[in-house]
Design brief:
Number of strands: 3
Oligomer: single chain
Strand order of the largest sheet: 1-3-2
Number of domains: 1
CATH architecture: Orthogonal Bundle
Order of helices and strands: HEHHEEH
Distance between the termini: 23 Å
Number of helices: 4
Length: about 110
């Protein structure tokens, strides 16, 4: 029986990494980030607003992001952008991810384990 794919528990920390990475490219608002995560991960990862906004607010409180309100077509949107602290955090998380990815790849490719 086929079940819908969900994001597994080992995904902890991935939303933060993805949001920082996207915001390193350009300023974006929440729903734009939701769509962009799906796009850049070829729909392998889907993060809803209930995940995105708490991470954005936490990063903002920690000084990694700055937010500004902008009126667009009569609606007010909150746009987020990376700060210097956010870029430093992105670099650290990216390094950690590469280390973990390398370790998992080594374990999966080890002879005798299938």
């Amino acid at each position: 029986m086929y079940m819908a794919k969900t994001n597994p528990p080992f995904m902890s920390g991935v939303p933060e990494l993805l949001l920082l990475r996207l915001l390193n490219e350009k300023e974006m608002y929440g729903y734009e980030l939701v769509r962009s995560v799906k796009t850049v991960t070829d729909e392998a990862i889907s993060l809803g607003e209930g995940v995105i906004y708490p991470v954005l607010h936490s990063l903002e409180r920690g000084g990694a992001l700055k937010a500004r309100r902008k009126s667009v077509s009569g609606r007010t949107r909150v746009y987020y952008s990376l700060t210097g602290k956010g870029r430093t955090r992105l670099e650290r998380l990216h390094g950690e991810w590469k280390r973990i990815e390398s370790g998992i790849r080594a374990a999966l490719d080890a002879p005798g384990y299938a």
